[in-house]
Amino acid sequence: MKPQLLHITTQAYDRLIASCLEALPREACGILTGEPNIGKIIDVTAIANVHPSPSAAFAFAPDDWVKAYYRMQKSRQSLLGFFHSHPTSPPHPSTADELGIHTDDLLLSHWIISLQQPLQPEIQAYCYLNGCFQPAQWAIAD
Ligand SMILES: [Zn+2]
Fold it and tell me: Per the database record, which ranges form the JAB domain (predicted)?
């Protein structure tokens, strides 16, 4: 399979970083959505993190997740991926991240934003293939 190149608009990128910074010291989490045919991420919706240890892991608040899904459908977008931040660690999937994945959907990407250096966020996108996270290339495209 050829390596996937993911696209995100400047506006969505800025919103992604802002959502992660706003959530500090907790992990931010949420969904990435866009136009289904193009597969480009054009919108980012943060979802409240209700994990009992929110600075080390994340769990979507169910009511917020439903609201975000409804908002996405209303704006005729599709779910393209998920994001969450790592406030103090590198952008590599944690054990909790590995255990939290239940789908092998090739159309969904998983983005981890490391805020180890808040002024220089480090982003790594992954696709989940054959039971593990595979790094994916991404680029800003407007
Ligand atoms: Zn994580």
Answer: 11-115
Sign of the C-alpha dihedral computed for residues 98, 92, 129 and 45 taken in this order: positive
Q: What is the Å distance from ligand 1's center to 100 Cα?
A: 9
Taking the centre of ligand 1 as the mean of its atom positions, its distance from the CA of residue 86, in whole angstroms, is: 6
Q: How far is the CA of 58 from the centre of ligand 1 (A)?
A: 7
Report the CATH number at residue 25. 3.40.140.10
Total domains in the chain come to 1
Of residues 98 and 100, the one with the higher pLDDT is 98
Given a contact cutoff of 8 angstroms between Cβ atoms, the answer to whether 138 and 117 are in contact is no
Domain span holding position 121:
5-140
